[in-house]
């Protein structure tokens, strides 16, 4: 069975929209595209290199797929680009538009994701694609989640993990970068547990 490793870049107020460039996603009039770039550092880069080391395939939503497909095939002579271009790309989408990027495959629903997860093969890495997270969590498909939180408040934009059902996670790794970004890696740990700090009534 494959493992699904999912990751998001987010601001302090939980915005995940267009971290990598001004034209990445301007929907809703978002004006801060590329907000991550000034805060990227050696530590952050080294962690991303670890995530994408070894064999992997990609599991993507359609918007992120289109962004990646418009970028990575144009990059030559870069080992990271070579990995992305060679990997199988599994795209969770209702669109029937062709998937032109080499080695791309359409998945109709989360049942298809589960069936893929149950096959033999390399890890499935989710990058970006925030709209598919609620379904992945609801269906118990994520094995490891990493969040990289950057020291900036954006005030507007698409948020991380919108509408995700409740669940508990345990921290398995954490790092702090030179630029103040916090890297936190989590694994699911069951249901949300509650308690109370209220003082016992001794009346």
From TrEMBL:
GO BP, one annotated term: riboflavin biosynthetic process
Domain Bacterial bifunctional deaminase-reductase C-terminal positions: 2-176
Gene Ontology molecular function, alphabetical: 5-amino-6-(5-phosphoribosylamino)uracil reductase activity
Pfam entry (one): RibD_C
Entry protein name: Dihydrofolate reductase family protein
Organism the protein comes from: Jiella avicenniae
